[in-house]
Design brief:
By secondary structure, this protein is an alpha+beta fold. The chain has a domain at about 35-75 and about 300-450: Glycosyltransferase, CATH 1.50.10. It is about 50% helix and about 10% strand. It has a three-stranded antiparallel β-sheet. Strands 6-7-8 form a three-stranded antiparallel β-sheet. A three-stranded antiparallel β-sheet has the order 9-12-13, with no helix packed on it. The longest helix is centred in the first third of the chain and has 21 residues, at about 35-55. The relative contact order is 0.12. The structure holds 1-deoxymannojirimycin (DMJ). 1-deoxymannojirimycin (DMJ) binds near residues 360, 361, 362 and 447.
Length: about 450
């Protein structure tokens, strides 16, 4: 009997080869740019040296006045603690070792100062935890535990949502109205603290705060922007994915991925559905996520902040690649209008509402995630453009400066700590040829501190 061509060996071989070619074309090994990675690393070293010269061991370098400032009455050494994990990713061992030694021998958090619970969690607790993660040095873990314990009183509120301020020495608290990012962005840091100590309390407090927000969603599933932590009443009912809500959503998604917590997965999937339904719109062919009334779902403001550019990364982590790539295109379009992006932009009127740019990482962050997951070289090129624009407009004799106005490029005397922790890290990771599997193994916190995926008893 004549062999059916469909089942013939030559036909099957052809199919096999075509499939293989297809796979290689769709998902080739990522092209890298080690020369660019070295350039980013050299910039990091230059900026770090400037920080050491003019600001060590204070919180923040002020590049124009060649001086420093502290967030509170005493320095909490935020720049070094925040910068540490980027040093380890870049193999800057000497600089990293100096910070380890300093934190172990000199840093004392027993200070009678009120600190912002959210900000110190993502920068200080997150940074300290990575120091233990990279070294296994229990003296560094002790510092993280000490700091985490000093934060804990903030969570003793009627709703479980943390107070805005907590005193590091006395445990006194104040500030009973917070935005949702400040309310619900603790899962990663406090979860890792539970993981390392075996004490589930930290994770339970963090999850309780996130659940307190989730359980107050409206009948259509949206949440507002600000809440009173005593009454649990919304004080601002604008719903969006951007600044002041952003990392609450980010942590539902990343908490699920980092710890395999199915309850968080469910909360995140439900949130994503209603976000998609109520907040997305296309204006002039570009995808944006607007601000809606949390009860009616009606769009009430067509403004975005540059923080919102983290969202393509979270969409990519959630395998929503079409929305991720479309939204990223909108951000890169906005970036290219001025070679930097403005703090607040009205996409309805196509006008800048607030013109500053503070060396923020979000657009480079999402570019990195999209490059990681698609291997599409246009994203490699996107971060080359972003880095070159930073060199052109923000690089300064001393370090880099924030920009007061993206149109005039007027400078401000400020170098935020997340430039070390995030912006330069994401650029480096995009170009580096040693991090092919990084996001398979690690989850990066909202401050870009990397933690290895892990399951633990909660
Ligand atoms: C960072 O401190 C964190 O990413 C935070 O969640 C919001 N954005 C800033 C940097 O822009």
């Amino acid at each position: 009997m004549k062999e059916n061509y469909i089942f013939s060996k030559s036909f099957l071989k052809k199919i096999f080869l075509l499939t293989l070619m297809g796979l290689l074309i769709c998902n080739p090994a990522p092209a890298q740019n080690p020369a660019m990675a070295e350039k980013v690393k050299a910039e990091f070293v230059r900026v770090w040296d400037d920080y050491k010269t003019y600001a060590w061991p204070h919180d923040v370098l002020k590049p124009v006045s060649r001086s420093y400032s502290d967030w509170y009455e005493h320095s909490l050494h935020i720049s070094p603690i925040d910068a540490y994990s980027t040093m380890k990713v870049m193999h800057l061992e000497e600089q990293a070792a100096e910070i380890e030694k300093y934190v172990k021998e000199e840093v004392d958090f027993d200070k009678d100062i009120f600190v912002k619970t959210f900000e110190v969690n993502i920068r200080i607790l997150g940074g300290l935890l990575t120091m233990f993660d990279f070294t296994n040095d229990t003296a560094l873990l002790a510092k993280a535990i000490d700091f985490g314990n000093r934060m804990l009183p903030a969570f003793d509120s009627p709703t479980g949502i943390p107070y805005y301020w907590v005193n590091l020495k006395t445990g006194a608290v104040k500030g009973d109205e917070v935005n949702v990012a400040e309310a619900g962005s603790y899962l990663i840091e406090m979860g890792m603290l539970s993981r390392y100590t075996g004490n589930p309390l930290y994770y339970q407090k963090a999850k309780g705060a996130s659940m307190a927000i989730f359980s107050r969603r409206s009948s259509i599933g949206l949440i507002g922007e600000r809440i009173n932590i005593g009454s649990g009443q919304w004080t601002d009912e604008r719903s969006h994915i951007g600044c002041c809500i952003d990392s609450y959503y980010e942590y539902l998604c990343k908490g699920w991925l980092l710890f395999g917590d199915e309850e968080l997965r469910e909360m995140w999937q439900q949130s994503l559905q209603v976000i998609d339904k109520h907040l997305t719109e296309k204006v002039n062919g570009r995808l944006w996520y607007g601000q809606a009334d949390m009860n009616s779902g009606e769009i009430i403001n067509r403004v975005v902040t540059l923080y919102d550019a983290y969202f393509p990364a979270v969409l990519a982590l959630s395998q929503k690649m079409n929305q991720a790539t479309d939204f990223q295109q909108s951000w890169f379009w906005l970036w290219n209008k001025n070679g930097l992006e403005p703090m607040v932009y009205d996409y309805g009127a196509d006008s800048i509402t607030h013109p500053s740019y503070d060396l923020n990482p979000e657009i480079a962050e999402s570019t990195y995630y999209l490059y990681y997951y698609t291997h599409d070289e246009k994203y490699l090129q996107m971060n080359v453009t972003i880095f070159e624009d930073l060199l052109k407009h923000c690089k300064y004799d001393v370090a880099y400066t924030s920009i007061a106005n993206v149109k005039t490029k007027e400078r401000t005397d400020e170098l935020p700590t997340f430039f070390f922790a995030e912006t330069l890290k994401y650029l480096y990771l995009t170009f580096s040829d040693e991090h092919d599997h990084f996001l398979d193994e690690y989850v990066l916190s909202t401050e870009a501190h990397p933690f290895k995926k892990t399951n633990f008893a909660r």
